[in-house]
Amino acid sequence: MKKYNFNAGPSILPREVIEATAQACLDFNGSGLSLMEISHRAKDFQPVVDETVALFKELLNIPEGYSVIFLGGGASLEFCMIPYNFLEKKAAYLNTGVWATKAEKEAKLFGEVVEVASSKDKNFTYIPKNFEIPADADYLHITTNNTIYGTELREDIDSPIPVIADMSSDIFSRPIDVSKYGMIYGGAQKNLSMAGVTFVIVKDELLGKVSRQIPTMLNYQTHVSKGSMFNTPPVVPIYCALQNLKWIKAQGGVEAMAKRAQERADLLYAEIDRNKLFVGTAEKDSRSLMNITFVLKDEYKDLEAEFLAFATSKGMVGVKGHRDVGGFRASCYNAMSVEGVKALIACMQEFEAAH
Ligand SMILES: *Cc1c(COP(=O)(O)O)cnc(C)c1O
Hints:
The protein is α/β, with parallel strands linked by helices. It has 2 domains: 15-251, Type I PLP-dependent aspartate aminotransferase-like (Major domain) (Aspartate Aminotransferase, domain 2, 3-Layer(aba) Sandwich), CATH 3.40.640; 253-354, Aspartate Aminotransferase, domain 1 (Alpha-Beta Complex), CATH 3.90.1150.10. Helices cover 34% and strands 17% of the residues. It has 9 helices and 14 strands. The strands form 4 sheets. It has a 7-stranded mixed β-sheet, sandwiched between helices. A hairpin with a 4-residue loop joins strand 6 and strand 7 (151-152). Helix 2 runs parallel beside helix 6, helix 6 crosses helix 7 and helix 7 runs parallel beside helix 9. The longest helix is centred in the last third of the chain and has 22 residues, at 253-274.
């Protein structure tokens, strides 16, 4: 039976990306050696990093004056590296979920934190609007896609201070105006690569401004100045990211990804809104195109385990919702086909007919 992978992260990747990475793990560039057993300083590995950076710049249309680096530690390590490198006195945070809250918590170790708005009052089911950004803060931190709650901020906001965005789960899903950001970062395992690498796109002029001492490995300047080669980078995940970026480019780039994401989401949300059993959890104008969250209506709540078992028996993988939301979550990252979403919809309709 065909399986459809709706896992929230680590998550679906195009089959050919996995195959190309697996092949390089067996024999890198016909060298007879595995990608796992060569030096990151080998002359044929440097082009992998260079090409990955070049494709980041090309696909996201990154202007001059920004660096792209690859780090370890996940998006979670960035939560402390950001205030370490950028918070002199005060930082602003938009609280839209668990990840945003974790980022904010780390910043409080370094200085004053202003929470510009929060959707915690309604279990993060919406993206706050019309919040005021303090012009005297060093930066504003946002989370563009809230993987757990299925909400997404899809516009590049105007801000008087640098915007730092966690785009772990929606990077490369749409065109972005990078010039409106001071930094964009994320773990790779949602929409870019396998787990193990973190990407950072940072505006060079923002670096080196805080007065505190920064430990070498936690200083962005270290990694920018060495082109991600200060220490051994996660070579296999970077290689995998490169294969995926090539795939995205071959599909038509981020414009094509955005079109497909819209198509998938339109189909699935229409079914959630139509089906008598289900209801979406996110407010309509905040709905994510990447993580689509829904629950059974109150009168059908006792069918939850049954629907999950039914969907699983039909090949749906990873549709169980996060414990903070309950119900179901269909993560529809770049590699998810429209066919996969249609298969899930067929499941929902068959289950409805039986009840
Ligand atoms: C998964 C996720 C994280 C955490 O990523 P790690 O790489 O596991 O640290 C942070 N932010 C968002 C939006 C996420 O989806």
